Amino acid sequence: MTLDGSPTSPASAPAGVGRRQFLTIATAGVAASTLTVTVGSLTPAAALTAPGTTHAAPTTAPAPRKRELRAMWISSVVNIDWPSASGLSAEQQKAELLGWLDVARDFRLNAVFVQVRPTADAFWPSPYEPWSQYLTGVQGQDPGYDPLAFVVEECHRRNLEIHAWYNPYRVSMQADPAQLVPEHPARQHPEWVWAYGGKLYFDPGLPAAQEHIKNAILHSVENYDIDGVHFDDYFYPYAVAGETIPDAATFATHGAGFDRVEDWRRHNVDTFVQSISQRIKQAKPWVKFGISPFGIWRNASTDPRGSQTGGSQSYDMQFADTRKWVLEGWLDYINPQIYWQLGLAVADYAKLVPWWADVAAQSGTHLYIGEALYKVTSGVFTDPAELSNHLTFCQEQEHPVHGNVYFSAKHVPADPQGSMTRVRDDHYRYPALVPAMPHLPGTKVRTPVLAWAGWRDDGVRVHWTDAGGRRFAATSFAIYRADGWVQHVDTENPANLVATQRAEGRVVQDFLDPTAVRGRRYTYAVTALDRVWNESAPSRVRWSV
Question: What is the pTM of this model?
């Protein structure tokens, strides 16, 4: 996602310990609606009129899925989504965040990716970097509460998975170090930083800078109950016409063994990704690590292993070998930003999704597709059904697509052209569980004991006990319902899933089903879920009485 509004530029024409193996060892500033992404030298508007840009829309109604990730990005850089403006009071910021989480639940999403380190700053009290200016308007100023702690608490209250989103290398959206607070690491270590394209960046080739970035991120992993660590598409910066990345001196000092600066830059990013992956798992093996890169790794015309596309290439532009990261098993999920429509000649959604699905399947890495909801707002996507058609297409793939993520939050309730309502009505008619990742360490949660389901004035109240005790306590529960008084509830049928609910820290749990219709009979069952969404067998059923 081009969060700073910079268009991407045209591209110029087996290593390490895999994360699966490492896990075994470790556990034994602009409005988003104006953003554009240049595909090669062809702007989206021109691409719409290019030959071969038609694609048949799906004709059959998609079947609902019990498990899929449904998420939205909540951007903080230049106050795109949250907070909506710098300088809001703590109570105003909290109210806005709760509003976004209500939006997520209203559209039956089950995860949010919240940006907490947009520019080498922090949305929590960090010993490494200052408070973000996007909170108070003044870098380093305490906002009067801990935003990350509040985000985690409120997400989990709603049983939403929370992925904390970090930009690794970007230091500032402007190029003058003097505008940073004196205690900023870029002021304390000016040798770590260079300016490019009117912004400041940590030099990815400096080991000391890399170590600082990892320490800053890991502080939040170690001290907050986040579910995932998330990076976007910014590694080395997008190319700026007429400028050269100013790392020649770093290459001369640290580039031994590399003949080409481009290969050395990719090595720098590879080393960082592999290392942060390992350290996340050392700290908390259950925390997921995922990256959302630009949607094209390489074009097949450049590299036969690439996709049948003709756009910019992250391998060559951001020096991000995203395919390698997936195949090496360094990521739990890959979330490519496939921000183009079905049939677009130079970057066809219908070509890129199968390409990524095939790559991800080779290592068992989960695949979530980044969706350009903002392009419905801006008018680039002219078909109101475009996004719904994307999800249908994803579901039809030979290799699994595990979910979709929408950029950005502000466009979800805006519902341009009714596109998100269509997504909800066509695909998200029922809640869904986050897909389980078998390689992550789980908890052997026990089947709950469902005690009672009884009518109250406001619906059916369901009571059960968590049979796992402290050692095998569930993180959350899934509540299922079938019509009529029956002997069995099919918990694999997505239509029977009423809700998921976070465990309340006690043995006895309860849930109110406000959707139950007075006068009808229902049968309920409950399952237990661990923190990585592994599910127990269903309880014995209870009838509504």
Answer: 0.91
